[in-house]
Design a protein that fits this description.
The complex is a heterodimer. By secondary structure, chain A is mainly α. Chain A has helices at about 1-50, 75-80, and one strand at about 65-70. Chain B has helices spanning about 30-35, 45-55, 70-85, 90-100, 105-115, 125-135, 175-185, 195-205, 215-220, 250-255, 270-295, 310-315, 315-320, 335-350, and strands spanning about 1-5, 15-20, 20-30, 60-65, 120, 140-145, 155-160, 165-170, 225, 230-235, 300-305, 325-330. Classes of the chains: A mainly alpha, B alpha/beta. At the A-B interface, helix 1, strand 1 and helix 2 of A face helix 3, helix 4, strand 5, strand 7 and strand 8 of B.
């Protein structure tokens, strides 16, 4: 009886590890698909049209790097939004 | 009226409970979990705050969150789009937490706390500004917030008047004074978002002469500083926008060696690099503050954001700028923003 209990506990542990391993592999495969087909294609198309998502290149002939923000009190409804 | 401010999922998760404009309790989650700079949902800190006032979550009128999650997600998406395919590894590791946590804040709060009331989202740097200005003794003050990154903003300045805060201009990601400091912290073999204070301390042992410290001139290639204190990083020296590492190989070449290993011996070279970084940081901060004074013409200044924790620099502000009085939020990093959120909701939004 004790041996059976030990076996079941070990089996459960092993099964959970297998579960985590499969989840990791599945996540990795799905995320890779999203990355290469979603992010990748968009990025390639954007690069063809010379669209940049971050300002990585140095600005030339600019006197300041400050950008207008103008962030002040808005109506309460604006704060319910996550953007 | 009770307002509960929450800051979490980046670093220093924290909570602050406000009752009719007065702080009842505030706590960092790390105090309960014993994990330094704990990023997790601050369930223990929330329990502590509620128990302190002997109330339940049903008594809370508003919960405030310290940033706009979708704007942050937009920035992260832009990073991946710009850096494709170099950001693959970061995407695989960070995307699950973005989907499961950072984009499900209202669901998470409702599920974990069984809360059915209103949730308000305050912009990251506005929360920083509120945490400094609305807790300060000033009726009117210039405001400067400088940190690693919020949604998009890394640096912002503005003016606080009465209960109102107006952030006028910003510098946007990836150009960040906080991330420059963190990058060099990582380069010197210390942990990011934790050991920046060690680099600040180390700088005192380095060569503080701008003419004879060779690394100061080298950092001048990394950061372009304008007369008004605005700055831009040369991004070829950084990889933080697509990698879990921070300095690029070009930065290693510039500073004359590979990234130091954790616990490696600290040499004079390390000290001189730290000193040069500190001099650059102070130069940017002092120039920015002089410009902020010129724009606002206000004699008071309040500071917040991780860079405002640089006490060596803070000690030089009054001497090198026209400001007469200064207030720095004691927890100027992300931990203090739960308090900023609370104060902003109570004093500004509901005013």
């Amino acid at each position: 009886m004790k041996n059976l209990k030990l076996f079941l506990i070990s089996f459960k542990k092993g099964f959970l590890s297998l579960n985590r391993f499969i989840t990791k592999i599945t996540n990795c495969i799905l995320l890779s698909i999203v990355y290469f087909f979603g992010i990748g294609l968009t990025s390639i198309i954007a690069k063809i049209f010379k669209k940049h998502f971050l300002k990585l290149k140095k600005s030339k002939n600019t006197k300041t790097y400050w950008i207008n923000l103008d962030l002040k009190k808005k109506s309460i409804e604006d704060y319910y939004r996550q953007f | 009226m009770y307002i509960l401010g929450i800051s979490c999922f980046y670093h220093d998760s924290s909570v602050c409970l406000l009752k009719e404009g007065n702080v009842i309790a505030a706590a960092l989650e790390e105090r309960f979990t014993r994990k330094k700079h704990d990023t997790s949902f601050p369930i223990n800190a929330i329990r502590f705050c509620l128990e302190k006032e002997d109330i339940t979550i049903k008594d809370i009128d508003y919960i405030g969150f310290y940033e706009k999650p979708l704007l942050k997600a937009e920035r992260i998406l832009h990073q991946h789009l710009e850096a494709f395919p170099k950001s693959y590894k970061t995407f695989i590791f960070s995307f699950p937490s973005l989907i499961n946590e950072k984009l499900r804040i209202p669901n998470l709060i409702k599920k974990k706390l069984k809360y059915k009331g209103d949730i308000l989202f305050i912009e990251h740097h506005l929360a920083h500004a509120a945490s400094a200005f609305l807790t300060s003794p000033f009726q009117r003050s210039a405001i400067l917030t400088v940190d690693g990154v919020g949604e998009w903003t890394t640096t912002a300045y503005g003016l606080g008047d009465g209960n109102d805060i107006h952030l006028i201009k910003e510098i946007k990601f990836p150009h960040s004074l906080g991330l420059l400091y963190s990058t060099v912290t990582a380069y010197l073999g210390f942990t990011v978002n934790n050991s920046e204070y060690k680099v600040m301390g180390l700088s005192a042992y380095g060569n503080k002469n701008k003419r004879t410290n060779p690394y100061y001139r080298k950092f001048k290639k990394v950061v372009d500083i304008k007369k008004d204190g605005s700055y831009q990083l040369n991004m070829s020296y950084f990889v933080f926008y697509y990698s879990d590492r921070m300095p690029s190989l070009k930065m290693c070449k510039l500073l004359g060696g590979p990234v130091s290993k954790k616990g490696a011996e600290i040499t004079q070279r390390h000290k001189d690099i730290a000193a040069a970084l500190q001099m650059i940081t102070e130069e940017v901060m002092i120039k920015m503050l002089n410009y902020v004074y010129k724009v606002t013409r206000c004699k008071n200044i309040v500071l917040a954001g991780g860079v405002a924790l640089n006490s060596v620099c803070n000690g030089k502000i009054l001497k090198n700028t026209p400001f007469k009085k200064i207030w720095i939020q004691p927890d100027a990093g992300d931990g203090g923003k739960s308090m900023g959120v609370d104060f902003y909701i109570y004093n500004t939004i509901l005013d």
